[in-house]
């Protein structure tokens, strides 16, 4: 797949969010001298910027090193869904089996309250990222999905969450989408303009005292002479702690670090703006949703009325045309009314997210005073920020490793058959489509 640096596109070509961001542009100088600080954060996405903000608020001297520009990676390219739920059909009880009750209870609380906390932070720092607090839903497209979705709903309901079950006949009235057998909805979910949110988080981090250096690719992180050291732009930054938060754009900054997550290549596309009359038919309540389809079944609109969709990339010649054709078919399946309108697909872009075997991020102690937070598995919009807050507090010695509600790994955990899984992931899209077509997802 090549290095993560080769995959970074600082021009954000085709990315809708780069052209519609209302937040002021952010710009900073590359690292041009050696540094000695309390904390170095590698990566200026949702996680890295939040880690930096909370560490700086606690009084630490903080430097953020970003290979591209703020938000250029997964954070600024995502669909912007703030979801109060784990990936796919993962239930709270599944998380407890993985983490034990103490950590699971804390992580479940963070996931459930993540969007609300995020929206409050957006308001606190007055970030112009078009926050849309209209709820999020998970509908079932097949009998198999129905059983999973209902089990997920039952557990969240039993935990006292303000969730609602939507019977099949009422799904279309609520979501505007056709073909679903049922759904559950959490009103605290929503959506944001993700690139604008990154710009605002960068501004907030600098307001709190952090220093951000863009176009500053890190080539190596190691412990040397009693301090964590970071090599970047021909200079060395030393720190009491280093946190690597590069997710789907991770290189082997420490040995085998890139193998701790699968970099999955995804695409998004957006239609031209649609009229309020059309939107009132296909998304009557403006609730965003993501289903369990393997080949993508999610939808939201932006403030200008564009419908945004996407899925996994099929890495063969002509893949963009293949993806656009699939996205259009999916939109017509969900919203038959759109076929009459036949909207133009205005923009198309790709990016990478990091998936772990457990579909939960892990916190790795890769060396003395060197840590990584990687693997948000499509749930990074809210979770990367809530976890970033905790890791920032950990960096400031306001909590301990035991307080981090994730699996804490000593050393680097490489995913077995990492290279094979990444290659398969880039060719498996037609198989996913078949699974969806025959009700196997």
TrEMBL record:
Transmembrane segments: none annotated. The keyword Transmembrane helix does not apply. Residues 38-392 form the FAD dependent oxidoreductase domain. InterPro entries: FAD-dep_OxRdtase (IPR006076), FAD/NAD-bd_sf (IPR036188). Keywords: Oxidoreductase. This is Glycine/D-amino acid oxidase-like deaminating enzyme. Gene3D superfamilies: D-Amino Acid Oxidase, subunit A, domain 2 (3.30.9.10), FAD/NAD(P)-binding domain (3.50.50.60). It comes from the Bacteria.
């Amino acid at each position: 797949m090549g290095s993560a640096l080769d995959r970074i596109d600082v021009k954000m070509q085709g990315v809708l969010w780069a052209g519609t961001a209302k937040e002021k542009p952010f710009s900073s100088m590359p690292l041009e001298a050696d540094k000695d600080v309390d904390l170095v954060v590698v990566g200026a996405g949702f996680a890295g910027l939040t880690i930096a903000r909370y560490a700086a608020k606690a009084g630490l001297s903080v430097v953020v090193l970003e290979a591209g520009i703020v938000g250029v990676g997964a954070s600024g390219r995502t669909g912007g869904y703030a979801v109060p739920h784990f990936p796919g059909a993962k239930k709270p009880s599944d998380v407890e089996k993985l983490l034990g009750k103490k950590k699971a209870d804390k992580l479940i609380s963070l996931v459930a309250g993540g969007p609300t906390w995020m929206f409050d932070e957006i308001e606190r720092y007055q970030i112009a990222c078009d926050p849309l607090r209209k709820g999020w839903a998970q509908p079932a497209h097949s009998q198999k999905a129905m059983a999973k979705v209902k089990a997920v709903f039952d557990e969240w309901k039993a935990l006292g969450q303000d969730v609602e079950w939507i019977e099949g006949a009422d799904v279309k009235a609520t979501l505007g989408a056709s073909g679903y057998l049922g759904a559950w909805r959490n009103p605290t979910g929503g959506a944001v303009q993700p690139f604008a949110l990154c710009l605002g988080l960068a501004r907030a981090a600098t307001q709190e005292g952090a220093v951000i250096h863009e176009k500053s690719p890190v080539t190596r992180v190691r412990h040397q002479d009693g301090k964590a050291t970071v090599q970047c732009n021909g200079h060395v930054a030393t720190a009491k702690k280093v946190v690597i938060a590069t997710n789907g754009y991770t290189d082997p900054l420490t040995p085998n670090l890139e193998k701790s997550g699968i970099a999955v290549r995804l695409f998004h596309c957006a239609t031209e703006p649609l009229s309020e009359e059309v939107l009132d038919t296909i998304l009557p309540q403006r609730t965003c949703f993501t289903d369990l389809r393997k080949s993508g079944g999610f939808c939201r609109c932006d403030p200008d009325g564009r419908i945004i969709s996407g899925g996994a990339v099929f890495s063969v010649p002509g893949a963009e045309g293949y993806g656009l054709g699939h996205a259009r078919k999916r939109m017509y399946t969900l919203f038959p009314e759109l076929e009459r309108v036949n909207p133009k697909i205005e923009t198309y872009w790709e990016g990478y997210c990091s998936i772990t075997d457990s579909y939960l991020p892990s916190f790795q102690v890769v060396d003395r005073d060197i840590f990584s937070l990687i693997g948000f598995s499509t749930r990074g919009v809210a979770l990367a920020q809530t976890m970033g807050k905790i890791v920032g507090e950990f960096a400031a010695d306001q909590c301990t490793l035991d307080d981090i509600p994730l699996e804490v790994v000593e050393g680097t955990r490489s995913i077995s058959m990492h290279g094979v899984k990444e290659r398969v992931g880039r060719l498996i899209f037609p198989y996913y489509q078949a699974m969806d077509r025959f009700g196997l997802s």
